[in-house]
Amino acid sequence: MLGKQWSIIEEIGEGSFGAVYKAKSIESGIEVAVKVRQDTLGQFIMVEHIESHQKSLEVDVVLLSKLNGSKHTCTLYGYGTVKDFGMARRYVTLSGQIRKARKNPGFRGTSTYSSVAANKGKETGRVDDLWSVMYSVIECMRGALPWDHIRVRDILNMKMKMPTELLLENVPGKLACILNYLKTMKREEQPRYGWIISILETIMQERQYRSGDPFDWQVPFLEQAKSSLNQRESGAVRKA
């Protein structure tokens, strides 16, 4: 069962980026293909009529939404998110107390985005998650992190020695406030999420970004799709 709306019939195929399942609508009985992408905040998209043998395109939910109602296109019935908790660990007990740090928890994750504490194999907490978020944000704004192309065993040393101003080269200086704050935090502390979000929102406003704006790597694809749709609509007008 998927979302109390779709009944999974069987798996059609599976690749390195996800799996495709045959499913049926509980209400209408219509059969669809459901693709489940295997990323942290993945999306599944449903494509109408398996029996029509239409080519299933790897497209963004936003694009499918805009194409809804157009002839000869895939139909979007719905979408959702899948949160992967495969590497998550409860940090509080059932009574609400912070769990004691393990002596040798080991390292799990990706060295590029993990905190210094995680790279050292220490117990991690909410502050370490925020370090990963910040490294991801900085990478998006810089294009790459300084340690992207060095050996894994050298990443920890580079992270520890790199000055904040060098890490934030060509990046809004306000991010330094967040990084400096994270450096003062202990594993058990509850982060000031509201304050961090307010700084990120200020940066977005100053740069005239909106939360619904496409990512840089989506722009060419969306422009191409928009151009194709305009050509299709203009062709329909000429035929009329």
TrEMBL record:
<dbReference type="InterPro" id="IPR011009">
    <property type="entry name" value="Kinase-like_dom_sf"/>
</dbReference>
<protein>
    <submittedName>
        <fullName>Protein kinase domain-containing protein</fullName>
    </submittedName>
</protein>
<dbReference type="InterPro" id="IPR000719">
    <property type="entry name" value="Prot_kinase_dom"/>
</dbReference>
<feature type="domain" description="Protein kinase">
    <location>
        <begin position="6"/>
        <end position="240"/>
    </location>
</feature>
<dbReference type="GO" id="GO:0004672">
    <property type="term" value="F:protein kinase activity"/>
</dbReference>
<dbReference type="InterPro" id="IPR050235">
    <property type="entry name" value="CK1_Ser-Thr_kinase"/>
</dbReference>
<keyword id="KW-0547">Nucleotide-binding</keyword>
<dbReference type="InterPro" id="IPR017441">
    <property type="entry name" value="Protein_kinase_ATP_BS"/>
</dbReference>
<feature type="binding site">
    <location>
        <position position="35"/>
    </location>
    <ligand>
        <name>ATP</name>
    </ligand>
</feature>
<keyword id="KW-0067">ATP-binding</keyword>
<dbReference type="GO" id="GO:0005524">
    <property type="term" value="F:ATP binding"/>
</dbReference>
